[in-house]
Predict the structure.
Amino acid sequence: MNAKTLKPVLIIGGSGVVGAQGAHALRRLQPDLPIAIAGRDLARAEAVAAQVGNATAVRVDLQRADLGLGEDARFSAVVLFVKDETSNSIKYAQRHGLPYVSTSSGSFEIAPEVTRYLRRPGASPMLLASHWLAGAATLPALHFAQEFRRLDSIRIAALLDEQDMGGPAAAADYERLTSAAAAQILERGRWRWVRDAEAASSFLSVDGVGIQAAAYSPMDVVSLAAATDAHSIRLDMALGESASRRRGEAFSTEIAIELEGELHDGRQVRARHELVHPQGQAPITAVGIALGVERLLGLAGGEAVAPGLYTPDVLIDPVYQLRRLQEFGVSVQRKPDVELSLPVAA
């Protein structure tokens, strides 16, 4: 598909901290794709649109069924960088048959989106990308998992620097997802919801410093469970000081992926990969959403996606995702494997 011939991609929340970076990432990937920056503050949206280029600015109102855009507005996709408690954005996308991307729902919050899809499964392709940093942990984990003949456990540890919360929408997401419900984990083959002491954990930062954390449940755990036969899967998240800031530098964001199981050569190991972006979480999230948009529209990785319900790991090649993340500044390091004397208990 030719990007020049498409209507603009409507990015709701595109004038926010992460949404603006998402628009810039999409522009870098697709220089000719028209973009519409949508927000409540038109002047702010216009400023971002001018920086992005080949972009317009529109004011949106999520309280209205037409989003305040009028019936003559035309777009090629709807991308949501804020939490829409009204579901008007997904209704709008379905009514117009547009690809839809959501980014802010925990695993316990997707029922409105799923049931909306089930009522109209042929209306539009819907990408549920509410994973940690829009899939920046899940897709690399699936890539690294290819080294294993049998994968027993997956643990993702994410460190968000306390100075890297982002804008008000990101802060609201963090507060809602950490306080509204227990965290979902897969433990020895059984789904569990944990909170307080059961959710507490710790992990090593990329510089070897111990970090206190807690189980967290964006969509990663359920996606990894569906894609692998691992018996135990959890994502732990910490809000604290990143290794770069301890060195006296600016904040960064860190993801550690630990996989345990049997390699194809028969060895039982724990493999750890560390992903770091020196500018924090927003650039990584931006890339993930941009990759989702271009895939939905058929601008990379295949033809335009048919109506359906998808997660990033279903649509995007993990190798492609990891390569793009590295092009946008993510460093990837594999630590020495830890030999395990016995198979991990199921």
User: Anything to note?
Assistant: The two ends are 46 Å apart (CA to CA). DSSP finds twelve helices and 17 strands in the chain. The longest helix spans residues 281-296. Residues 135-281+326-339 form a domain with the Dihydrodipicolinate Reductase; domain 2 fold (CATH 3.30.360.10).
